[in-house]
Amino acid sequence: MRHAIPRRLEAPDLEWAVALLGQAMAAHPALSYVCAPPIGARRQHWLLRQLLDYVFRHGVAYTNAAGTALVLWLHPTELRRPWALQLRLLLPAIWWLGWAGSQRLRRLIRTVAWLRRQSLAGPHHLLLGVAVHPAAQGRGEGRRLLAATLALRQSPLPCYFSGQVPSQLAFYQGLGFELAGHCTVGEGPAGVLSNWGLLRPAARK
């Protein structure tokens, strides 16, 4: 099955992509865990902007023709430097998110990285997320965009994704991902945050 070629985002796309990501993730449990009240929308925007800027520098972000969906990947080589994202985020996070918020962010990053190391070894593609504008959800746009970007992975490496929304696991399993592990991140203001690791085996040559 042929997929429409997605558009790779460039630096001028950053601000609208952050806005789209913020709308799509407004109720995401990981964002709610890190950015619990009284952290406001401006500080959530800062966190998402840092994430996207990191992807622009060390990975690739794609959108569909309508600009209603995003898929974020990190390059396999970047995964050899697990400290880089922490260094970029954690020190300024103390100012932006407060001490409690910065510690929850630290715990989330470290727990997700720990489960990934337990689930696989060696080079792999890391899927950071799929985001769809609320008005476009339920139309299959996220599925089509993710499928198209999976087809663009040029090296025969496995793909890994960390998810915190149990109702979305079937979405990724329908695209070839398999459940690889589960762990608890911690207790947040909204309750316990859990994390699932999903692994898509390397394509056969």
UniProtKB/TrEMBL annotation:
Domain of life assignment: Bacteria
Family matches, as CDD domains: NAT_SF (cd04301)
Signal peptide stretch: none
Cited SUPFAM superfamilies: Acyl-CoA N-acyltransferases (Nat)
Domain N-acetyltransferase, chain residue ranges per copy: 125-178
Protein name: GNAT family N-acetyltransferase
Organism expressing this protein natively: Hymenobacter ruricola
Lineage of the species this protein comes from: Bacteria, Pseudomonadati, Bacteroidota, Cytophagia, Cytophagales
